[in-house]
Every structure is written in structure tokens, then in C-alpha cells.
Specification:
Pfam families: DUF1214, DUF1254. This protein has about 500 residues and is of the alpha+beta class. The chain has helices spanning about 5-35, 110-115, 175-180, 210-220, 230-235, 255-275, 315-325, 450-460, 480-485, and strands at about 45-50, 65-75, 80-85, 95-100, 105-110, 125-130, 150-155, 160-165, 185-190, 280, 285, 335-340, 355-360, 370-375, 390, 400, 405-410, 445, 460-465, 470-475, 495.
């Protein structure tokens, strides 16, 4: 056994611990200096926006085609900043605040406004004072804002990200969303404050295969983990992660070997865990508790509730590392949750070679839901003649008299009689009982009123499928308690041919 094998195991553990922060800070730097996909670089303390909906050629995978994103990389090193959020009554929106360890430490938006009775829920905007760690959290929020708002958010680190999401309803709604994005601003409380510097970055001083470790060492000093994680982080002193100056510029050969080997081991283990999959119900896998790794930082809108906290810190660290694989971050399920499905009732993979039907009982939500089609295994949106990548509760869908929605899932346009075939879908846990179909007023219902009516309904409820393998994602925004308790699950998907 090599004398440094013990350090290999320690390095693998340190990789899993530090991977979320390295990913998060790398993205902060990249977003500020290079931009991300359609979101252009604007530096720090300024919002950049996605102004056009994503399509099949989007640089992002698994994108949501029903929201537009805005991002700001924030540096409070020069001092407090004023965040202005425009009023958006009647429109789902959220601002999620991510610290360098990928913890969501605050939310602003539809859910928080509705439940507190303030802000945009009453048609007003927000003016928020963002205070650096150790700053004066009692600082008068009116100072420099010209507003009576008194919301102050003390950030856990001087550098963090804000990711905003705005729902929209079709191309005709885009100008309204872009107008809201333009009103989303950050400005220094002190107009004479120095320019923000962003995170320190000295990784170019080391060889490429030790870059991760130099970044982790540098950024752990700049952005320490939460105090409850401090003792755990000190375990990595033997790897040089607590040293200053850097031990990686001219490293000890055995230490360098341990770090390189440990990184590969830790990365392979993370891939194994990611590929392990989730538990399923009727083919659907839930993301209900994927974001419950934040055990320490509870700002506005974040529930300090054990029901939304992974009790074991070791498991929470693994969950955080898995979440770091998502480029725009994830949010708690009480803000937005999703269910994924790639198989039919019989357990066979969904494919464009067959036609399917989903008799969807609309999920109970306080905002809206969407059902999106992705190709497999990549996760791109699927090109189709309608330019339709999802259907949602914001659409004019055809409902059954019992309230369920018969969704047609196939690569070719449905035949006029397609919707009337829903009587072949059985009742029970796999789907609501079949019923007669007839077109009526909104929400539209259906009956066997003829091929023309059924054809129109089929087009309205048609979700175009990929030609090859595909999967569906049901997203639920501001989900109701039935969803949050795990009592709601989408029905199974039935193959029709």
C-alpha cells in the first residue's frame, strides 16, 4: 500500500465537498466576464438577461421554455447595494440568491409576496438593501432608496449570484417580460464606491491538473463555509487546502499524486451517484427534496423547517455536489418542483416510434405548471412544426368533464379522431376514468361530438414528441400542499399503438 493512499481517500472526500463552490464561483466569473449562452457578459452588480425563449438550438440542456432568465453576479466588497425589483402582479417570478456554496439563502417573488401580503403581491415593487457579511444589518433601508421599504438582506459572502425567472405566455407576452427585466436593477448605496473586483483567481499559477485544488484553497479562504462546516473543512489541512501561500505552485510529488488520484476518484463517485437515478412512482421520478442541503442560511423566503432540511450533513454534502451539476442552480420544492418520466406504463422507454396518451390530473399549484418534451439522452428541446416545446396551465387546453387533461404525445400530428380514443385509457391509479368528449367553454371540455371537434381538441392538447427516445418533465410552480406532502403524482403514460 502506498504511504499516501490515505490522502487519496481524503482528497476524494474534499473534491465532493468543494466541487459545488468551485462550480459556483467559476460560473460567477464566467458569467461576469464571458457570459453564459444567450446571457451576455456585463461584469458585476448589473443584471444581464435572456430576452428570447430557448429553442432546439439552445446552448443549455433541459431548459425551461416557459420562463426567461435574468442573472446578476454581485460583489458587495465596495459596500451595500440597492436592488430594485419591479412590480409584476399576476405573473409568476422569483429571484433566487445563491451563495458561493450553492445555498439559496433568500427568495423574492410571487410566492413570498403572496404569503407575506407585501411587495409584488399587492402590485408594488421591492427596494432591497443588500448588506455584506459583517455589515450593519440594521442600516436604515430607506437610505439611498427613496422608498419606505425596510427589507434588508445580509449576504453570507461578499460575492454571490442572483438568478431571476419570469414566466411568459407566448410570443405576444415577451415585450412585457422584457420591460420588467429592464427595470430589474442594482446600484451601489454609495455612488462613490470603488469598482467591484469579483472573486480572487490565482489558479493560473499552478499546472492545469491542480487547478481545481488551487481554486478550492483560494476560494475557501475568501468565502469560508458556514460555521457548522468549519470543523469538517479543517480535516483537509493535510491536503494543503488551509495553507498560505499555496503549496500547489511547486507541489510535493506525493501530494500532487494524491490530489490527482483523489480528484478522479471523487469525480467517478459523483458520476456513479448521478447515474443511480431516483425512485419512481408510475414511471415518474420526483425532485421534491433535491435542494434540501441548505442547513445553515435562512434569509427571506427560505423555510427554516426540518421538513426541508436533509438531517445528515454527510448526505447534504452529496446532495449539494449533485446539484452543482445544474448550470443555473436549483430551488427548493416549495418554490418549484418537477417530476421526470422516460417510460410508459409497461416500463418501456418512451420513443417517437409510438403514440402515447397522458390523462393528467392538473397538479395543485398556486401559480402554474408546465409539461415539457426533451430528447434523450441529451435533453434538447424537440423541433416541431408548431414550435411547441411544452404545454401548460397557461394554455387554452381541452379538459375532460372530470377536470383531467388528455395529452396526446406523438411525433406526428394527431388524427381527427385521436382524442376520442382516450376511452381506451383505463381508470384507476394509471389515469382518470374515460369520459365522453365535447367542446364547451373554458376550461374546454370534450365529448364524442364529431371528428372536427376531436381534431381541434387533439391539436390543442398535442405535445409533439421527438423522433427517437424522449422524456417528459412536469414542473410545478408554487406547488400546493398535496404536492409538497408527496401525495400528488402524475399518472402513468399509456402507449396507444
Amino acid at each position: 500500500m502506498r504511504a499516501d493512499d490515505q490522502r487519496v481517500g481524503l482528497a476524494a472526500e474534499a473534491f465532493s465537498f468543494g466541487y459545488p463552490m468551485v462550480c459556483a464561483v467559476r460560473q460567477i466569473i464566467r458569467a461576469a466576464e464571458e457570459g453564459i449562452g444567450p446571457i451576455r457578459p456585463v461584469g458585476f452588480n448589473t443584471f444581464a438577461h435572456q430576452t428570447d425563449p430557448p429553442g432546439p438550438l439552445s446552448p443549455f440542456l433541459n431548459v425551461n421554455p416557459d420562463v426567461l432568465f435574468s442573472m446578476a453576479q454581485v460583489d458587495l466588497g465596495p459596500g451595500p447595494a440597492v436592488l430594485r425589483v419591479p412590480p409584476a402582479p399576476g405573473r409568476y417570478h422569483v429571484l433566487a440568491f445563491y451563495d458561493p456554496w450553492l445555498n439559496v439563502f433568500a427568495y423574492l417573488g410571487t410566492r413570498t409576496d403572496t404569503r407575506t401580503g407585501g411587495g409584488n403581491g399587492n402590485g408594488r415593487g421591492h427596494e432591497v438593501l443588500l448588506v455584506p457579511p459583517g455589515g450593519d444589518a440594521d442600516l436604515d433601508a430607506d437610505a439611498g432608496t427613496g422608498s419606505g421599504s425596510r427589507l434588508v438582506i445580509e449576504a453570507p459572502a461578499r460575492v454571490f449570484s442572483i438568478v431571476a425567472r419570469f414566466a411568459f405566455r407566448g410570443p405576444q407576452d415577451l415585450p412585457a417580460v422584457r420591460a420588467l427585466q429592464d427595470q430589474l436593477t442594482l446600484s451601489p448605496l454609495d455612488p462613490d464606491a470603488r469598482r467591484p473586483e469579483g472573486p480572487p483567481d490565482r489558479s493560473k499559477q499552478v499546472c492545469d491538473d491542480l487547478r481545481f485544488w488551487e481554486e478550492l484553497r483560494t476560494w475557501m479562504r475568501a468565502f469560508p463555509p458556514p460555521p457548522m462546516e468549519g470543523e469538517y473543512a479543517r480535516r483537509f489541512e493535510a491536503l494543503g487546502l488551509l495553507a498560505d501561500p499555496s503549496p500547489y505552485i511547486d507541489p510535493d510529488p506525493t501530494l500532487a499524486w494524491s490530489l490527482r488520484t483523489g480528484l478522479r476518484t471523487g469525480r467517478d463517485e459523483l458520476e456513479r451517484l448521478a447515474d443511480a437515478g431516483r425512485r419512481t412512482n408510475l414511471g415518474w421520478a420526483s425532485t421534491l427534496h433535491e435542494a434540501d442541503y441548505n442547513l445553515d442560511r435562512f434569509g427571506p423566503g427560505v423555510r427554516d423547517d426540518r421538513a426541508w432540511e436533509i438531517p445528515d450533513r454527510a448526505q447534504a454534502r452529496i446532495a449539494r455536489a449533485l446539484a452543482a451539476r445544474r448550470p443555473l442552480g436549483i430551488v427548493h420544492a416549495y418554490e418549484e418542483t418537477a417530476a421526470h418520466c422516460a417510460v410508459d406504463l409497461e416500463g418501456h422507454h418512451l420513443t417517437g416510434a409510438h403514440d402515447y396518451r397522458l390523462r393528467l390530473r392538473p397538479p395543485p399549484v398556486d401559480s402554474f405548471w408546465t409539461l415539457t418534451m426533451y430528447d434523450e439522452p441529451d435533453g434538447y428541446l424537440v423541433d416541431n412544426p408548431l414550435g411547441r416545446y411544452s404545454i401548460s396551465s397557461l394554455d387554452d387546453l381541452v379538459h375532460e368533464p372530470d377536470g383531467s387533461i388528455p395529452v396526446l404525445i406523438q411525433s406526428e400530428p394527431p388524427r381527427p379522431e385521436a382524442l376520442s380514443q382516450s376511452s381506451s385509457v383505463p381508470s384507476g391509479p394509471q389515469g382518470p376514468s374515460a369520459s365522453a368528449l365535447r367542446p364547451v367553454s373554458t376550461p374546454r371540455s370534450t365529448s364524442a361530438a364529431g371528428a372536427a371537434g376531436a381534431g381541434a381538441a387533439g391539436t390543442a392538447n398535442w405535445l409533439p414528441a421527438a423522433g427517437g427516445d424522449f422524456r417528459l418533465v412536469l414542473r410545478m410552480y408554487c406547488p400546493g400542499e398535496e404536492v409538497l406532502r408527496g401525495a400528488y403524482s402524475p399518472p402513468a403514460i399509456h402507449r396507444l399503438d
